[in-house]
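Contributing new records

If you add data, match the layout below exactly. Sequence lines come first and carry their own label; structure lines follow with theirs. Keep one chain per record. Anything else will be rejected by the validation script.
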Amino acid sequence: MEYLPFVNIKQGSDSVHSFSNGNTLPLTQLPFAMTAFAPQTSSESSWFYSPRARVLEGVRITHQPSPWIADYGTLIFMPQKRSPEMRPIRRRSGYRPDQAVLSPHFMQLDFLKSRCRLRLTPSERGAAMELAFDSADDNWLSVLPLCGGYEAKWDACSDTLRVKVDNCGGQNTVGFAMYTVIRFAPGEIDGEAILAGTENALSNADNVKGEMAGMHIKLKGASLHAALATSYISYEQAERNLNREIGERSFEELRENGRRLWESYLSRVEIETENEAQKRTFYSCMYRAFLYPHKAYEPDANGEPVHYSPCDGKTRCGVRYTDNGFWDTCRTCYPFYAIVARDEYREMVRAFVNDYLECGWLPRWPSIGERGCMPSTLIDAVLCDAAVKGLMDRDTMEQAFEGMLKHANVPAPNDDYGRSGVADYVRLGYVPIEAHKESVNLTADAAYGDWCIARIAELLGKKETVRVYDERAKNYQKLFDPETGFMRARFADGEFRPGFIAESWGLDYTEGSAWQNSFAVPHDVEGLAALYGGKEAFLKKIDALFETPPVYEIAGYDSEIHEITEMAAADYGQCAISNQPSFHIPYIYGALGETEKTAYWTERICREAFSYEDDGFPGDEDNGSMALWYVFSTIGIYPFCPGKNEFVRTKKLVKSVRINGRAFDADRYAGHTVPYEDLI
């Protein structure tokens, strides 16, 4: 059976700044590949693609993991006719979205203004591209930057264009550049007519350098065939990537290779459904599961992995991955990879540890450089899950453990690294109001991180460390207020912040209120229940969460953030399934043995809040994390606590499931958990 026909890569892309239906991009990209491609419909913001737009500004090389992070290392390819334009508003062309072909391994777009059809199929670090104009007169391919510095040089002897761009957000990168080599088929380019320069200063030239410069390649006829590859290291390395990944392979060979590769990933979980819509939603989500993190390493002349290190700009040995927010992805993505992408997961954790060895801190939100976008160090859960599931060798584990201990105890010189408020956390056992905003989440995440440290210490035979960090893992209890039944922020003197309102968003809580953020204790749900007086009383609190209308107040934000709007729109009480802090909430019932209540909510949410359509998610999809909430809930399991070798069970929502070629039926388990060993 083929699964690609069920994938809509536009799922979740119908989003705007104020309301997210996914905030995704339709990426034509190989699994975990370094380089992706997407249509650009507007350059005015990070929301550069809309499925509703009727115009195109070109096809973009993109690495963007989220519009909130923004892009880096971009180039835009635009077919034009007669006088080529630089500015997006001048060059843009009408197109018919319903006639566009957008799939994981192939893109086809018709530019109406230039009467040109563009076809593209990706490799791991590049692509093959074809243009077909309707006539042979005055046709161009513009190769343009999005922003920043641009260098390009045409080599007539080899029909090759070399382009360097340096656009990169964030402060934690040194000497970043993307080098692109574009090799054209012999005899298709008029090398004497190439235009180069800036918007107001174009001239015939074979090279150009400057801010927002660009180059326009003149075709001799109506067709063009090109192969390209990128590198973060050098032109020489980009040439190496081009020869290794594309070489003399035809467009159709590359397209077929991409199709086979995607089918091999999508088929790792096979389902039979009652209806096609459910299958389309499921495999569209499966596609999103394998986009991030992006590889950021390249095979050298000997085939050994090397990478650009953003900490110092040097080329280093070993693997590297980027474009991932662990605050989001630790909850679902890596536990999923532990089942169906074990080799890739091994390589990823090695790469994350390489970051620690190179810059002194484990990554939090790397997007080529460290962005530090979300709080805390939930990479602890990623590393712990890999360790307990046998996906980390001893040396890597020792190095990871060293990095985890560092950020658990040592303040970082830069707020983008380490645990925020760590000095006070170590001293008081919680992050006080005075130390940092969102102190409730920082404390809960630190306690979970401490539990993760204890589990790795256990594997390493460090008994005293296990004792210390198991005790620290109970620190969440210091914020519990028995009077209100919520986790509340404290001052350093131990007093709670006055004027508590459970529905008040922000301030002491990350992207939520006390309702969404008081139950983030996946490592000790039984201990959390005990604070309420036992399982029954605690589950009544969770009942109340679902029964309380999605009302809210705004305390820590200047205005209503999109996550608030999405919670109210979804209307599952105070369960904001639109955002990661609520992902585990329906599963709290199941974690305490009440599987039927979990099944009620997961079935309802999957049915009502998810689809394969362009507006198919209830909130930010975030690097596969929300897509995999749907995948897990559909097949009947959930990784309630990454770092434990078990999954909480719910009712499967399909007729049958096969994982890695083996039948799996969550409904056959009598207990409320499924052992990890049964899934691999």
